[in-house]
Design a protein that fits this description.
The protein is an alpha/beta fold. It is 42% helix and 17% strand. The chain contains 14 helices and 14 strands. It has a nine-stranded mixed β-sheet, with helices on both faces. Strands 2-1-3-4-5 form a five-stranded parallel β-sheet, with helices on both faces. The longest helix is centred in the C-terminal third of the chain and has 22 residues. The protein is elongated and about 90 Å long.
Length: 427
């Protein structure tokens, strides 16, 4: 997403700008909100960096308090009359840019400046723009909500852009351990997406148990293209299948491969440094998250073992690999049907809503995300493979053994024995 640029005078509105900055970074992430004192490194050419950052922003908020117009320098000269005044420079550049939407933000009872007072500084166009007002009293939260809605309209004109905002906000919370707005963001996103007529729409308030995830089990395998990705996706699929019949997931997968299906699966490496923060963010014990992932790893072993007993269709393909990267959402693609679920701090992943993605552009947004991860990790972190055209199955024993040995000290003894007691480990 393009950045939000905060233009202000420290002597005029420093305190309220701090509050605005905090509210915006909670919502959009720190990397997407630029404020000079926080964002420019020491020994940097301040003026040049301001102009460079302006080129990256989509919206400028001109924060105007009672002294914004009349502020003077040490010589008693009005700052706006000085061609080297930083506020004059940044606002002037933004006003002449076709890519930057400028929003004057009036603080409390600050009036709109008269056009005549801005002629000399070439900022007269500022008064022709639609303004918004932020009150520093108990109305601050409500005013910020209104401003954020305006920003969303300018920064995220379509579904893909809005989703990009969600991903940035999620990453910010994960990295900074900020979750106070998590439920609010989840509610807003669900509400927004559920009202759309095209692109993406809500199909289930909770992903767990959603029937759409089960369609592939009943589908003809000869024309099947299945792509499943999520933190512990095979564990979740196993539970869904068991809820509906007594079939084992490995038997279902192998049957599809016998019929010539193309299946790709990705889930999180249990050794990832992200596990701790992800578990904390979802209010889930770390050991439970690792147990869910361990279940997925055990299923991979069982699939490989079952494949040894059959003649694999030479038209089939299978690729199961793990990844070590922030998993923004769960992804389920069955032929041309795409279903996703966002992860939100404060709620376990499978408790989040399920959305069906309709238009091809938005489908590509999600698939490209995991295609990029897949390309990065497929050479080292794969577990099971079947190559199209040969029907040859390969199991990555060394990687599997490394994972199992790690998990032996991380999950309970009972769970470990239940999942891996029949597996043969090296050394």
């Amino acid at each position: 997403m393009r950045q939000i640029f905060l233009s202000y005078r420290r002597a005029d509105t420093l305190a309220i700008t701090e509050r605005i900055y905090t509210a915006l970074t909670d919502c959009f992430g720190k990397r997407n909100v630029f404020r000079d004192v926080n964002s420019i490194l020491p020994a940097t050419n301040f003026k040049a960096e301001l102009i460079r950052r302006l080129q990256q922003c989509g919206v400028m908020l001109v924060i105007m308090g009672p002294d914004w117009l009349t502020a003077e320098d040490d010589n008693g000269q009005r700052r706006l009359d000085n061609p080297d005044d930083f506020v004059r420079i940044e606002v002037g550049v933004a006003l002449t840019s076709q890519d930057v939407h400028v929003i004057p933000v009036l603080i409390d009872s600050t009036p709109v400046p008269p056009e005549s007072a801005l002629l000399q500084s070439n900022l007269a166009d500022l008064v022709k723009l639609q303004v918004t007002r932020i009150r520093s009293n108990h109305h601050f939260a409500d005013d910020m909500e209104a401003l954020i809605r305006v920003l969303e309209n300018h920064l995220f004109p379509n579904v893909s852009d809005l989703i990009e905002r969600q991903l940035a906000a999620f990453e910010a919370r994960l990295n900074e351990n900020i979750d106070r707005r998590a439920k609010d963001v989840q509610y807003k996103l669900n509400t927004y997406l559920s009202k759309l007529d095209t692109g993406i729409h809500l199909v289930a308030e909770q992903r767990r148990g959603y029937d759409g995830y089960y369609h592939w089990v009943m589908d003809d395998p000869s024309n099947m293209n299945l792509f499943l990705a999520g933190r512990s996706v095979l564990h979740r699929v196993k539970e869904d299948i068991l809820d509906r019949n007594d079939s084992k997931i490995e038997d279902v997968v192998v049957k599809k491969l016998e019929g010539g299906a193309h299946i790709r699966v990705m889930f999180l490496d249990p050794r990832s440094d992200l596990i701790e923060s992800l578990a904390r963010g979802e209010n889930q014990p770390r050991q439970q998250m690792l147990t869910d992932i361990a279940t997925s790893i055990s299923i991979c072993y069982n699939i490989s073992h079952t494949l040894n007993k059959i003649r694999i269709n030479r038209h089939a393909s299978l690729e199961i690999c793990l990844y070590d990267q922030i998993p923004y959402f769960a992804y389920h693609k069955h032929n041309k049907e795409v279903t996703i679920g966002f992860y939100f701090p404060g709620a376990q992943g499978y408790e989040s809503a399920a959305f069906e993605v309709l238009d091809e552009g938005t489908q590509r947004l999600f698939e490209d995300h995991f295609n990029g991860i897949y390309a990065r990790f497929r050479d080292d972190k794969w577990l099971v493979r079947i190559s199209t055209g040969t029907g040859k199955k390969t199991f990555h024993d060394r990687y599997y053994n490394e994972l199992v040995k790690f998990l032996q000290g991380e999950i309970s003894d009972d769970n470990f024995k239940h999942l891996f007691e029949s597996d043969e480990l090296d050394g």
